[in-house]
Amino acid sequence: MITGANGGIGFWSTLQLARRGAEVIMACRNPEKGETAAQAIRARVPHARLHLVPLDVASLNSVAQAVDEISTRGPLDGLIANAGMVHTPRTRKESVDGLELVAATNYFGHYALIAGLLPVLEETPAARVVTLGSLSTSLVRARLEDPQLVKHYSPWRAYAQSKIMVQSFAFELDRRLRLSQSSTRALCAHPGYSISGRTQIIDGVNNPSPAKVLAGNLQRPFSQGKSQGAWPIVRAVLDTDDVDDPGPVFYGPRGLVRGVPRRATPAAITTDRWAANTIWNAAETATGISFLG
Ligand SMILES: NC(=O)c1ccc[n+]([C@@H]2O[C@H](COP(=O)([O-])OP(=O)(O)OC[C@H]3O[C@@H](n4cnc5c(N)ncnc54)[C@H](OP(=O)(O)O)[C@@H]3O)[C@@H](O)[C@H]2O)c1
Fold it and tell me: Which domain of life does the UniProt lineage start with (predicted)?
């Protein structure tokens, strides 16, 4: 299952997994965009096994409905928590649940989704949860005492802090899964710097403006397309070389911002135990959901 599978890295991860014969649940908030993306994949992989599930990850009600629907389908082998707000609002906004919108989308919603789907993941031996981290985790002064940025909102901090939270959450989830003797593993991967202007045009899926294509060409030495950006994510969900690794397991491009996937070093704050507990507790408070406590 991939959240935000209709565009960007989620689309390319779905296509690459479909090419390997995987059956993929595409969880998308806009059904038309989801259908367009599924058709684009079927045009390239005629026998692709794709299922669309509605999911607005910024709404806890929508998350609960998606959990109910997916739980009736039987075991889940892997979950890629990809959906994300990358272009964040200039001023602080709240989700339908009254949570800071960027954190609600990038972290709290995925926390609730993973908590709800853990039973169906655990039906598959060695199932995998992959969250989407970011290089921005090293580039911001976090305010973890203010997880919803009531006092310290800026568009950049909202993004980078949400990525610190979701990256730390993957590593803490993995620790707690191991402690509970679960065979499910949680990992994190980041796509470097992967931009739409350097990505193949696919009508309805990737239609960059001429300005974005120009910007993409200017940034060629230190960027890549989103199809390459999907490689570390696909590797994180499929590669079994790391199965006995005590973690944290983090993948990213060999050239930091671009290139083939390899093991990467996560930002120190995302492997800090105090920060991890603060971040986990913030999600419990925000969502009212506790698991693996
Ligand atoms: N691109 C990079 O260089 C980069 C670097 C580091 C990390 N990442 C991470 O990689 C992930 C994907 O990024 P991207 O570059 O592929 O971004 P993108 O092209 O903007 O795609 C984001 C996807 O998330 C979906 N989404 C956003 N809000 C949602 C919600 N509330 N519910 C359900 N789906 C939602 C979007 O759906 P709609 O089409 O409906 O908006 C879209 O499918 C993000 O988590 C991002 O933080 C990206």
Answer: Bacteria
